[in-house]
Write a structure and sequence with these properties.
Blueprint (H helix, E strand, L loop, with lengths): L7 E11 L2 E7 L12 E4 L2 E9 L2 E6 L1 H6 L10 E6 L18 E11 L2 E8 L13 E4 L2 E8 L3 E6 L1 H5 L11 E6 L1 H11 L14 H6 L4
Antiparallel strand pairs: 1-2, 1-6, 2-5, 3-4, 3-6, 4-5, 7-8, 7-12, 8-11, 9-10, 9-12, 10-11
Length: about 220
């Protein structure tokens, strides 16, 4: 689990693609401190597993599902990415619950200044995800925990303070760029529980009872 508070901005050092699979090497200073094989690191909001590392970089594999659902396949060598290590049990919970499981991608429609902030307007590629996007609720964009300002039929907006913009790779994103979106997991679970329909192939509850057994001579 993550919190959406970016620890550092890393740099793509190597990318190897084979169809819809990737292996990436990311340069970093802070998140490699104490890292071990199998640790989880969020890269632009995507939870990846460390498969190799040295003091100033780590490697991770990207499977086809992640390749298709995120913007990782658009990365180029030298590009900056947001990094965060998985949260420690005793750590400070400064953002919100972030799983590192990207729901969809979005495209930046425009950005503009609003006093000391910068407002991003983002079009969701999967409009169905908008049911989880609530004004003043939490959302994760490229691994950054942000607060939704407003929503429309197919888009939403977020307002970002100078510190967040200066400490993340989002400052390099402009109109037309793709970002990873993870909606609030609590809303997704509530929606699933309220609207869950049992699949037809699941066996119905057994009608076997004591009275049934007695009536049919088994007791």
């Amino acid at each position: 689990m993550f919190t959406g508070l970016v620890e550092e901005v890393g740099k793509m050092k190597g990318i190897a693609k084979q169809g819809e699979a990737m292996r990436i090497v990311v340069g970093a200073d802070r998140v490699t401190d104490g890292v071990m094989l199998g640790d989880s690191i969020s890269v632009n909001g995507v939870c990846l597993t460390v498969t190799a590392f040295d003091r100033f970089s780590f490697s991770a594999d990207v499977m086809p599902e992640t390749y298709r659902k995120s913007n990782l396949h658009e990365l180029r060598a030298g590009e900056r990415v947001n990094l965060e290590r998985a949260m420690l049990a005793g750590g400070r919970f400064g953002g919100h619950i972030v799983q590192g499981h990207v729901d969809s991608t979005g495209k930046i429609m425009k950005r503009h200044s609003d006093a000391n902030a910068v407002v991003y307007h983002i079009h969701l590629d999967d409009a169905d995800m908008l049911r989880y996007v609530i004004p003043k609720g939490s959302i994760t964009i490229d691994g950054i925990s942000l607060t939704v300002v407003d929503t429309s039929a197919h888009s939403f907006s977020v307002s970002i303070i100078p510190h967040t913009l200066g400490e993340t790779a989002l400052q390099q994103k402009h109109a037309g760029d793709t970002v990873n979106i993870e909606c609030d997991v609590i809303g997704k679970y509530v929606d699933h529980l309220l609207n869950f329909k049992k699949p037809e192939n699941i066996r119905a509850e057994s009608k076997l009872s004591t009275s049934f057994l007695m009536e049919n001579g088994f007791l």
